[in-house]
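In this notebook, the sequence line spells out the residues, with the fold written below as integer tokens. This is how one looks.
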Amino acid sequence: MTMPATALDLGRSAFSEHRWSDALESLARADAEGGLPPEDLEVVASVAMLLGKDSEGVAYLTRAHDEYVVLGDMAGAARCAAWLVLYMMDMGEPARSSGWMARARHLVEGLDQPGTAEGYLMIPAALGALYGGQPEASKELFGQALAVGRKFRDRDLTALGQLGLGTAGITLGFTDEGLELLDEVMVSVTAGEVSPIPSGIIYCAVIGSCRLALDVQRAHEWTAALQRWCGDRPDMVMFSGQCQSHRAELFILHGAWDDAMAAARIAQDRSRRGDPEARWGAWYLEGEILRMRGQFDEACVAYAKAAETGFEALPGLALAMVAQHKVAQAQAMLRRALSGSDPANRRRLLPAVVEVELAAGDTPAARAAADEFAAPVGDAGRPLERAIAAQAEAQVLIAESKAADGLLASRKAWRLWYSLEAPYGAATCRVLAGRACSVLGDQASAAMEFEAAQGEFADLGAAPAVADVLRLSGERAGDGASTLTVRELQVLRLVAEGKANKSIARDLYLSEKTVARHVSNILCKLDVPSRVAATKYAFEHHMVS
């Protein structure tokens, strides 16, 4: 006769099948009926954290720690204390995190023999060193944690140690070596050898390191893997916001800005519901989209939200300041940030430094930044870093009055951006090519480059970039009806009637993409920020009746 499954059995089964809500319900019922052993309290704590129920997760893990103490299992108690340190750090409670760190150290010091708890305790200390500007010390601590994990065959600790070593290596500028370590740790994660919370930490950290290393191919591969992992756990909150942030970044690169904004908004919601690590990326990426669309005040609000996490919203905020004609402030901000950054983050800032220094008229400083970024790249570098290096070189060469060389560099950069399916970068390089052709006296080629770039920017909704191209090609924004084409006047009249792009496209027998381009051009030429403002302008200037 088969005995009916108990609540504990059901909870354990649901946990193994990644049904977190069912697992929490059953384990909580088992706890209410007769209590749980500390091992199961650790499980239910993990499930609560995965569901975004931070307070419940901390309460369960605190109980697990206490039960281990009662049973005399100080190694188990120390392990729980170490994880509580990490959870408190994520929850923004440094005092409680410090208290648990002190308790964990006392527990480890009282152990008769060393064990995995000692290694787990190194992880929060290593993270503190990494984010505190001490990557060398961080690397040493992660290495020690890895050694402990391997000695006791603890897969979670081993994976976290490898993750830390790879991340520290990239931060120190040893990009290839660091990425190889991260690939190795991802093998164990994707094989299901690592527990859920360490797995989520590793997924998100690895993708973040790929972004820092400008490795688009790896970022695509691991973001897709993370999306599948999250999709197999549909009720999970923890890590799901970070997944959406990573998707938003790739959407931005590939010109799907509406999709990127939607993903960023989901990430913001998940950050509030229990994935606080998603907050910086969610708000920073919204700021990037708004900046490129010309909504600078709104972008600065989003950047400020990102900065509330303690991490600066750079380089986006500095580029927004340049667009708002605050060049000196942007220059000072980036120079200050460069002076205190580690090698990897310094490299991340250099392309924006080129742009800001050129806007400030300091061509030698821009040249130094471009050369520093390009130094480790070479022909075998990753495509994204090669594209950025070639674009920066083209910008500086044109500023140095070396138009012929600048044209070659801009076309090289365009080919790389195009191969990455990155329309904004590709269009930017067509503008550079047009500028170079214009200086060389080839106005026909310049006009073709500007027209192609204008169309691409208009399709993206990159209003400031469209306005820049119009200025370079001899058209000026803000001249009203005199600068609008016959077709643009037709579109404006339909916009003033309140029609959407789809309806306008049907009335004029155009594609929605073409209508969107016309609308973007109208906003730039009239120097207005929105369709409502364009309608008001049209009525005030008797362009519609």
Remarks:
- The CA atoms of residues 227 and 243 lie 6 Å apart.
- The chain is about 75% helix and 0% strand.
